[in-house]
Amino acid sequence: MQPAMPYESNEGNPLAGLISDDVYALLNEYNLLSEKAIRDYQIRRRFRLMRRQGIAAADAIDKLRDEHPYLQYDTVRKIVYRLGKR
Questions:
Q1: Is position 48 within any domain?
Q2: Based on C-alpha coordinates, what's the Rg of the chain?
Q3: For residue 3, is pLDDT > 60?
Q4: Residue 32: C-alpha distances to residues 35, 37, 50, 60 (Å)
Q5: How far apart, in whole angstroms, are the C-alpha atoms of residue 64 and residue 59?
Q6: Domain range for residue 76?
């Protein structure tokens, strides 16, 4: 999975704001991380950042779709608003 935005860490840890690089590496080594969940986390984080910058929600979703062209508009909307949460 290619990230749509740069990681916060030099080690390639997309969850640098949540866990250390060592913990991330260990979890990744044992395949305990979900690539989809990490992607969704990054999309939600990016969406919140754009909204704080004053970008309209629809425009932010369109920009996220540009970064993730394989996702439909409604899919991105569901991710950012966490619809369908278990």
A1: yes
A2: 14
A3: no
A4: 10, 11, 30, 30
A5: 9
A6: 36-86
What's the Cα-to-Cα distance from 84 to each of 7, 34, 62, rounded to whole Å? 27, 17, 20
Distance, in Å, from the CA atom of 73 to the CA atom of 65, rounded to the nearest integer, reads 7
- Both tokens of 39, joined, read 């992607």
Instruction: Please indicate, yes or no, if residue 57 is contained in any of the structural domains.
Output: yes
Is residue 8, in this structure, part of any structural domain at all?
A: no
What's the confidence (pLDDT) of residue 45? Answer: 93
d(CA 80, CA 64): 10
Residues recorded for the chain: 86
Q: How far apart (Å, rounded) are the C-alpha atoms in residues 79 and 65?
A: 12
With respect to residue 67, please indicate whether it lies within any of the assigned structural domains: yes
- How many domains are there within the chain? 1
Listing DSSP states for 66-85 in one string gives HHSTTS-HHHHHHHHHTTT-
> pTM of the prediction?
0.77
